[in-house]
Design brief:
The chain is mainly beta. Among the domains are: 2-230, Immunoglobulin-like; 304-479, no CATH class. Helices cover 4% and strands 53% of the residues. The chain has a 24-stranded antiparallel barrel. Strands 1, 4, 7, 8, 9, 10, 13, 14 and 15 form a 9-stranded mixed beta sheet that branches. Strands 2, 3, 5, 6, 11 and 12 form a 6-stranded mixed beta sheet that branches. The protein starts with a helix and ends with a helix.
Length: 818
């Protein structure tokens, strides 16, 4: 605690010590006539307009100014409807302009130019618009890093226009960003934060108009200034996205009374409404997520749940305000029913569960979010999922319904106040209401992120409280806090943190936490050289010391010492290595029985990663890991090879191959028939995953993707042990348990999707999905036999067509006037 008190004191002393560096400024010019959007800068409105130039590299050679022969010139004009960007990217040899075609929100191997507007000039929140040399569009929102460390939200989409042209001097781009795609304050004189990014794939140069110092923490806070915008009025931002979809699903049940082929028709709509110049309402009615990519499911041998990526657009777009304190895991909404396993309880003789939905049906959801001119961000999220039922059938064909999840309402309320020096403080509350049929839950607290003026020191963290409200028992209340302090500027950076979670804290009704009841300490040290000599363009070394203790009753859990180094080479290859030493410890979760502990062995893991130049037609990456356990001569290896071959600017193939053998590992096997005695086993495990991708892009608005994944994992137990009360392995005396606990899982998924964006914001998509799964307790077959048997399993085939159409209120008004 002395360390953390000292950290807080140092932070307070340094908060007002430094001053910011001077930033570049560009003046936007108002025009009465909009330029013709053809990608050429020969319109009269572009003449005698000041331009931004003298871009500076961030990568590969930080601080190096662009060559005059390959310079960048960007002009900005505006009228009462939109902001227009005209960009000239010079190239000594235009043949070296990278021109891979990609559909919406994909860059591929193409040069691009992008502009980022911070319309409230808070140095924290911004919107970016990027166009590639093949006129591919990419847009994103930017905010403070979320729980995964990401500050960019590429799933955010706006409707805007761009055109490009390649000529003998290089290439040019024109971009029109309607005010309906931006949020800004309603005032006569606007001053925006702005930065412009150019990427030259052939030389891997990433250049910024206002220089980014890699030694400084933050991205938006290192922006330049855009002035000259006056007397513009935020428009009515109202857009409708109605959709129509149809599905045909075939699975060979081959059972009397059960059709093999089923068809369905769906319809719904998304609405985006700008309530005022600052706030937007996003509403989805009867959403359809049937075409999103299939989950990468795995065989989970841990005591914790698997966290899956979110692929549903409504839940990935514009959620930066809600990603505070790990309180919003979007997969909870429409996820597995709360009482999924209840369907298998109290089955009568002859009864079987013939239907048990793994997901609840989302009826509707909305997001209200925005930020006032004073920097106060307000976010409201609400979603409702329908009641879920499992179907139980007896031998005579009689069926009954078992409720596995009640009608449920999910709520989030956020107040996020921007402060000086790119700092912020946030109040957040999440609530799950099951209307009295099951317990309800509430989690809330304070999140803070404080920087000094120079962004050289940071004090961040949160304090949270959870409540579970039951109908017939006392409310359960838990607490969690985190405090992190560190130096964030310079070649040498460091941070120290403390994270405490009591045994009753549980945010998992809407957030995610793998386990509670711990007290962790973390010390990170890092040194990076951004201007090295000889073979490198950057290298860094780091070390991390991590310790964990159980809170109640207080006990040591584990101690880790981690270290590593990485380097970017001048040939644009990248390599790193890292090592992880874990001392013997106490695992209170692996036994799966409350009150028991499993004594873990000392281990050492060494990892090596190598990636070649991804701008080349063929690129490859290799990850290798070797683990040693100081018990039974345990060994583990991981080999992961991923590759991509760009056959042409339209066609590419790639893949990801991973094999992970584990020899003589010890872990939980089963629980004895008394339900209180954990049995652990000495086991071998083997996991192989193959992913194969094909992409053919017809143009920047039309493309076809194909993804095949086969996953195989098996576990063979060789010896069983009892656990002593202190967690040590003991000779087996318990015999009353299921000895046949080997596992063998195969998963097969194909996702093939064709997308055509026939007008801005509107698209037609055609999808084919195929899946198969097999699970047995016979872990003796090799990979070939598993692959063959999986392919021969009954396949579920699903074909769907979805039409999404964008209707803009402003266009409707103009059409009506016309």
């Amino acid at each position: 605690m002395r360390v953390f008190l000292l950290a807080i004191l140092l932070s307070a002393i340094t908060l007002n010590t430094f001053s910011q560096e001077k930033k570049k400024t560009l003046v936007a010019i108002k025009t009465q006539a909009a330029p013709k959007m053809d990608g050429e800068l020969d319109d009269a409105v572009w003449q005698k307009v000041p331009f931004a130039t003298d871009f500076v590299q961030l990568r590969p050679n930080a601080g190096t100014h662009e060559n005059a022969a390959d310079r960048t010139e960007v002009k900005i004009i505006y009228d009462n409807e939109a902001v227009y960007i005209g960009a000239r990217m010079y190239e000594k040899d235009p043949a070296k302009i990278a021109r891979e075609f990609a559909t919406r929100d994909q860059i591929g191997n193409a040069d691009f130019i992008g502009i980022i507007f911070d319309t409230y000039k808070d140095g924290i929140n911004a919107a970016g618009f990027f166009v590639t040399s093949t006129n591919g569009q990419f847009d994103a929102k930017y905010a403070l890093p979320n729980s995964e460390g990401n500050s960019e939200d590429p799933t955010w989409n706006a409707v805007w226009i761009s055109k490009v042209k390649i000529d003998s001097l290089g290439w040019t781009a024109e971009i029109k960003v309607p005010y309906s795609a931006l949020r800004f304050a309603k005032k006569d004189i606007q001053t925006w934060g702005m930065n412009i990014i150019r990427k030259r794939q052939n030389t891997q140069q990433q250049l910024f108009w206002n220089e980014l110092d890699p030694k400084q923490n933050g991205f938006i806070n290192q922006e330049g200034i855009l002035t000259g915008i006056e007397k513009i009025v935020p428009p009515v931002r109202l857009g409708f996205y109605p959709y129509f979809s149809t599905y045909v699903n075939h699975y060979p049940y081959n059972m009397a009374g059960v059709p093999n082929t089923k068809a369905s028709v769906n319809g719904g709509m998304d609405v985006k409404y700008g309530i005022n110049e600052s706030f937007t309402l996003d509403l989805t009615l009867i959403p359809d997520f049937g075409q999103v990519q299939s989950d990468n499911k795995i065989l989970n041998l841990t005591p914790f749940e698997v966290k899956y990526n979110e692929n549903r657009p409504f839940f990935t777009e514009g959620t930066e305000l809600f990603n505070k304190g790990n309180l919003f895991y979007t997969r909870r909404v429409g996820g597995q029913p709360l009482n999924y396993g209840k369907a298998y309880d109290n089955l009568q003789p002859g009864e079987a569960v013939v239907g048990n939905p793994t997901e609840t049906k989302l009826i509707n959801a909305f997001k209200l979010s925005g930020r006032t001119s004073k920097g106060l961000g307000i976010g409201v999220f609400n979603g409702i999922t329908n009641t879920a039922y499992a179907t139980v059938e007896d031998a005579a064909g009689n069926q009954r319904q078992v409720e596995t999840s009640p009608l449920t309402n999910y709520n989030i309320l956020v107040f996020d106040q921007n402060l000086k020096n790119n700092s912020s403080v946030t109040l957040i509350n999440t609530n799950v209401n099951r209307f009295g049929k099951d317990y309800s839950a509430d989690v809330g607290g304070l999140v803070w992120n404080l920087n000094n003026k120079k962004n050289s020191y940071n004090l961040s963290g949160y304090g949270l409280m959870s409540n579970k409200f039951y109908r017939s028992q006392q409310t359960v209340t838990g607490y969690n806090y985190n405090v992190t302090f560190g130096k964030t500027l310079g070649n040498f950076t460091w941070s120290v943190s403390e994270d405490r979670v009591d045994k009753k804290y549980d945010p998992n009704d809407l957030g995610i936490l793998f386990n509670n009841n711990y007290l962790d300490h973390n010390l990170n040290l890092s040194y990076a050289n951004y201007k090295p000599k000889h073979f490198f363009t950057k290298w860094d070394v780091w070390t991390n010391t991590y310790s964990s203790y159980r809170v109640s009753p207080y006990s040591y859990q584990y101690f880790n010492q981690n270290f590593g180094a990485g380097a970017n080479f001048k040939n644009f290859w990248y390599a790193n290595f890292n090592g992880h030493i874990r001392m013997s410890g106490n695992d209170f979760y692996e036994p799966r029985v409350p009150g028991r502990v499993f004594k873990t062995a000392e281990s050492f893991i060494f990892n090596l990663n190598l990636q070649t130049n991804q701008a080349k037609p063929f690129s490859v990456g290799i990850f290798y890991s070797n683990a040693w356990l100081n018990r039974f001569n345990g060994k583990g290896n991981d080999l992961n090879v991923f590759y991509n071959y760009r056959v042409s600017n339209k066609f590419s193939v790639g893949g990801d191959f991973m094999v992970s053998p584990r020899i003589n590992y010890i872990g939980f096997a089963t629980v004895a028939n008394d339900n209180v005695t954990p049995i652990v086993g000495l086991r071998d495990a083997q996991t192989v995953q193959n992913i194969f991708n094909v992409k053919y892009t017809f143009s920047n608005i039309m493309g076809l993707t194909f993804r095949l994944r086969h996953y195989w994992s098996k576990v063979n137990y060789k010896q069983f042990f009892d656990l002593a009360q202190d967690g040590a392995l003991a000779n087996l005396t318990t015999t009353d348990f299921n000895h046949n606990v080997d596992q063998n899982l195969n998963l097969w998924n194909i996702d093939m999707i064709y997308v055509w964006q026939f007008t801005p914001g509107s698209e037609i998509s055609l999808a084919w999905k195929q899946s198969a799964q097999s699970y047995t307790n016979l872990g003796t077959q090799n990979y070939y036999n598993n692959f063959r048997d999986t392919y021969n399993q009954p396949q579920n085939n699903n074909v769907s067509v979805k039409v999404l159409y964008y209707i803009d209120f402003q266009s409707l008004k103009k059409h009506r006037k016309g």
